[in-house]
Amino acid sequence: MNQATISPQCLIIDDEPDILETLCITLERMRPAVECSTATCLAEAYQKLNTRPFQLCLTDMRLPDGNGLDFIQYMQQNYPHIPVAMITAHGNMETAITALKSGAFDFISKPVELKQLRQTVQTALNLPQLRNNQIPSLLGDSPVMQNLKRTIHKLARSQAPAYISGESGTGKELVARLIHAQGARKDKPFVPVNCGAIPYELMESEFFGHKKGSFTGAVNDKQGLFQAAEGGTLFLDEVADLPLNMQVKLLRAIQEKRVRPVGAHTEIAVDVRILSATHKNLNQLVQEGSFRQDLFYRINVIEIPVPPLRERGEDIPLLIQHLLENLYQKNQASTMGEQAPKISNSALDVLKKYPFPGNVRELENILERAQTLCESDTIQIEDLQLPKLNFDNAETSGNQGQSGNSLDPMLDNVEKETILKALEQTHWNKTKAAELLGVTFSTLRYRLKKLKLDKI
Q: Is residue 53 over pLDDT 50?
């Protein structure tokens, strides 16, 4: 078997001979060596695509008969399985972001840093060879979930920063993990961080690390989250909770792909993909001035909205079955039954009508509570202990009133008791009580006020 058969193939498009030569020499010296085929214009590139199977393409932005964006769009339509990296002028982030939105795998800035070039090429070659109809596994067959699966499949083969939006409990971190698991970085770390849970005074150290002696208590060098995610994915959950001064430092780290540990004199190059999420409205926060517009555009190259559970009611029976089986396996050691409990048709009908303000997380909490209370092998309505939730928009919906949002009459009097039990279990910590109930804190606060429990 000759070398051409086993070497990865790369098509490089640039009209400058010196750059073509530098790129070819660098790739051919990699291990394994990458065999390069060159083109100086789009017409020549299109012709060469028909001559052999390529695993990667590199294209300059400016070409004699068009530009790199034209090539990316052509590849998306005809060769979507081949990753394309765009070579852009240094500092031209607007062009780079446009390329990523058009479907580019990644971008490389001129003058080309050879280390970054090798990293980008290696990451592209690590992409799993997926067929076009393969999509990540995600529970649910509703139209909105099918669309979400297709989006995840597409983004898994890109390095573009992605912003995952959606209400609390919809599964935003699961979406981020699926993007990572199906991509070229799947064998590298996935590092999730809740931005709202890091104390303000420790944020810079947590993200970028610190040197020994840089501040009181820094008794050793510490690796930051960016370094911990090297080669992999850094997932910034609840990114809207970052203070403005930290947003500035995060923006620079993302743009320059470098971080400076606290107390260090030099920066460290980092290679991470950024995925971020929040349940808040970032557009609104930008308008209010509490979130930087430049950071918003940098992390929001592509937005992935995760649908709330109430918009995919047809998935509820499948989710219930899956969650009950998982809960049974988790608690099997303390359960007497030989199989997971079932759910009665009447209880299933009630859950289908329930609005789930806490989404899938709330459904799991409801089922765990019901499984504990259930005295037979079948969960009944009374085991669910659902609160009767009335949302603000229901109060302004004409004649619907409470009757339009009420559940089974048997549930009308359990809400107050359920909330009080949750408060007692959490020693009257309302934040923890909301988590236990599977609802947002604002929803719990609203219900406490309605039930005249807010003074307790």
A: yes
